[in-house]
Batch of 2 targets.
Target 1
Amino acid sequence: MQIALDQLQDGETIAIEESLPPGFLGIDETDLVSNRPIYLKGDASRVGDHLIVRFVAQTEVFMPCSFCNEMTLVPSKTGEMVYESDDQIFEYGKLVREEMILMIPHFAECAGGHCPHRSLIDQLRKKKSASSSYHTPFSELF
């Protein structure tokens, strides 16, 4: 996954469109499974002795639902990434991997955000009422 600066004429732009294998992210976790391809789309332009690379990457990962702990499919997509390089060869594989891992959400909920077990958890939460007084341990200091 590299682009050589001398591949392009000054002002020329080439399209980048790749499908990376599921193992590309190198995730080996029981609670995070990446077995879907990663789609990469963007372009690279040469401006003088600089290479400008822009792309978006997306995939789907399996992770446990925060409520019922069942594995659920979660989309993961980067925003537009823009890199500038004056190197003769620009390698972007490590950058794609880092951005994709950073964009994996910390929490997931199955059923499109409507886990059927959510109501069971909500029953266990303490209800706040408008009339309840809050404990403020440092209020006497002011």
Note: The mean pLDDT is 89.
Target 2
Amino acid sequence: MRRRLRHDLKSGGRRKSNPGVFKVLWSRSGAGRDTAPASRRRLFPRSSGVPSPPPLWRGHVQQCCRGVGRSEGDFADGIGEQEDAISALDFLASVSQVNPSKIGLAGYSFGAMVALPVALHKEQVKVLALVSPFLSASDWEQLKSYVKPKLFLCGDKDYIVSPQEVQRLASGLPQPSQYEIIPGADHFWWGYEGKIAEKVSTFFRNAFTTMKESSAGL
């Protein structure tokens, strides 16, 4: 299965999808809505099947993995891609307008496999969302000690990632944790773009709000 996914990453596959994408999202320190064009607010590239969040987001860093889509370089077995994600987080840490308490990381398919170890080891990541998570048994085991807010989404027609396994494994993780199996959706989310974008966006918004209230003692 891993070889099959790697082939999809390198060749682009036959579907209009991009499994090699991860995303870093943040909320700026100031108030107000993001006025960037919609093309710059996409949660994932249009070809991934997972589009942008509503304009409640203040900004984001988006990256297709090496050698995927219009990204340069060659596929680096996940290690180089993790380094790229860390570089994106380090960049955000250097931006004065970024609120460091409101940085989340989202990954789709192979991008989820890239995002997870980064989230586990980088304190900057406060919230994690994994869509169609292509994770190993070791990855799921490490999640048992991850106590930050996390979301898992999978389509019930997914033939690459088992929705039954996602439900079984995600249900046993420490809180705060959410999972949802979306009826009718496959691995590529074709036709479910708006629904999945809204679910991820709502999760991030609610998680950041809860953390803010908790820190204020509400």
Note: Residues 193-215 form the longest helix (23 residues).
